[in-house]
DoxX family protein (Streptomyces mashuensis), 178 residues
Amino acid sequence: MAFRNRPGGHAAPGPSPLVHVSAGLLLLRLMLGIIMVTHGTQKLFGWWNGPGIDGTAKGMEHFGYPAPKVMAVVAGLSETLGGLGLAVGLLTPLAAAAVLGTMINALDVTWDGGFLLPSGVEFTLLVAVSAAALALTGPGRYAVDAYLPVLRAHRLAYGVAAIALALVVGAVFILIRK
């Protein structure tokens, strides 16, 4: 049992507030990770009624991306590996950047559909903001990163750098569209 100090110097039983935050971050990471792995494997392998590489490449071609098959693989790998990284809390800022960069492009190609589903951007925006939030907060204590010396103590600078990376790479992919 963890103890916290009260203002008078007396210890009060109860879990540390960081336990609650870490549990919430774990839940967010797991769900976002599972969602992204599912979407990525739909693109890569056609699982769960997904389009597979060829179907995703047709979509990339429709949206004006050069080398559509390569772009389909990049998007699928970014979602799958980023999702796996988020789910287990491994290299969390980079995993979040992979997801965020992909969502920036998804937002760009779907923005004209309005805000609400079925053709709107609300879900994509939620995924993007969730990934950015995880980049900034770090994975919490229930993550592989907690056991890596360099990432054990998450620093805000890691999250800011990851978001900057996602914004730059996302913008580059937007700019190369026809």
User: Anything to note?
Assistant: The radius of gyration is 19 Å.
